[in-house]
Amino acid sequence: MGPYDRSPTPEAAEAPGVAAAPGAPHAPDPATTASDRTRPPGRRRLRSAGGHLHRATRGGARLTARSGRYAAAKYHAYTHSGGAGESGLARLTELQASHSAGDAAMMLALAGTLFFDPQTAQARGQVAIFLLLTMVPFTLVAPLVGPLLDRFGHGRRWAIGSTLAVRAFLCWVLGEAINNDSAWLYPAALGCLVASKAYTITRSAAVPRLLPAGTTLVRANSKASMAGVIGAVVGGAMGGAALLAGPSWALRVAFVVFVVGTIQAIRLPARVDSAAGELDPEQTVAIPVQPTASPTDPPTDPPTDTPTAEPASTDAAGLVGRLRRRVRAIPWPVMHALWSTGATRLLTGFVLLFMAFLAKEHPIGDLHAGVVLAVLAVAIGVGNASGSVLGNTLKDFHPHLVALTAALATVAASVAAAVSYGLVTVIVVGLVQGVSAQLSKLCFDSLVQREVPERVRTSVFAWSETVLQVLWVVGGTLGIVLPLDPRIGFGACAVGLLGCVVMALRQRRLAGPRTAPRRATGRMGR
């Protein structure tokens, strides 16, 4: 052996634990044992492939974990930006993401069970009965929720948490009902819709109380909307994976998400419960007072308006008078945008229930009903995200005119679907519904921020959200009672949407000189 020979000595080669030199020409593979050398070549290749697969799996897991941590950090920075972490708005934004995630998982589970059951088309009457029995009382009682919660400490946090807890319970009931073919399937499903609308009302009143300094309602609600889109994507992915094992497992995923949301709601800042300095809108409106005078007294000045701090107790007209005074207290641009936004809510309720049955009764070509509704859902989601971006871009236009344009777009889309029903028009309806609903709501929020005094802003949000839910019920009722004919259904929906547009246009004339909008600054919510 020469002095420059790098081949291992027999002693070094046989010594245990001593590795061969890196440059050794015939160094044995450390991973290759004597038993491996005696195995057939096919088994060695299989073992090698298994090792490669194991290493690839570990690398993929590390990459997924690293990507997840990066996405979580970015999401945390997004929700806590602009002082939202200090004010508590970030917690409410994250709660909205959890709510949307639970919604997505629940709707995926119901998509193949509630709406695509062969007997669903014949069960429309039963669905209509449950819709009336659950939604109509809810809309009548909802105006009393705000004043009742203001009376008790921790009211709104526990109210928001209760709506999520109810949805968690109903998701578990739905899972059992699907497995056992129980009659509680429809009541539990519609009860979830009721709880969802109650959550929207209670949450809307909490947003103004958590706004950081320098943040408008448009930015806050746009951020919450984007967080909701993210939550819906994540919840849809989890629900879709669980759906492979059955619809009941997707509902159990929704149950877990709503339980997490309940905890998040209870952990909201205490400022959510504080109503200090807030009034009902009707308390800011002057009550006409006619001074008493005898016939011999000289003529007096016209009746004056004397502000009052008493709510409905001073109004001889009772509840109707209080409602009229509440409407009078809201500036006409806000009412204008409220009716425009109501048109988009009417379309939302109609599309949700009408298309669920129409896709089954009148399939488009050879497409399965599930495919049609999946395309519609994707179009609505894309529209919602686009509406959030568009709402922050349109800053040089009057918000009430932008909302009116969005409402007119819903009328045009409904007419198009009535004239030529097909996959293209279904996509158009979904996109228009998503964009118009998000854009008009952002415009309405900006007008409330600009036109309504701060002390009544929270009450205006709670009341307006109730009005919007009533219009959602109207749209859902139309989707249930109308014949499953796209020409009749979408045609009637277009008439209802046009009625909302007419009501929006009438607000300025009805207002007269009683309210004057504040000087527009050319920016939404500024």
TrEMBL record:
GO cellular component, as recorded: plasma membrane
Compositionally biased residues, Low complexity: 9-34, 306-315
Spans annotated as Disordered: 1-61, 285-315
Composition bias type Pro residues, residue spans: 296-305
Gene3D superfamilies: MFS general substrate transporter like domains
Residues that span the membrane, as ranges: 127-146, 223-243, 334-359, 371-394, 401-421, 460-482, 488-505
InterPro entries the record matches: MFS, MFS_trans_sf
Basic residues biased stretches: 40-57
Compartment(s): Cell membrane
Assigned keywords, A-Z: Cell membrane, Membrane, Transmembrane, Transmembrane helix
Membrane topology: Multi-pass membrane protein
Molecular function terms from GO: transmembrane transporter activity
Pfam families in UniProt: MFS_1 (PF07690)
Protein name per UniProt: MFS family permease
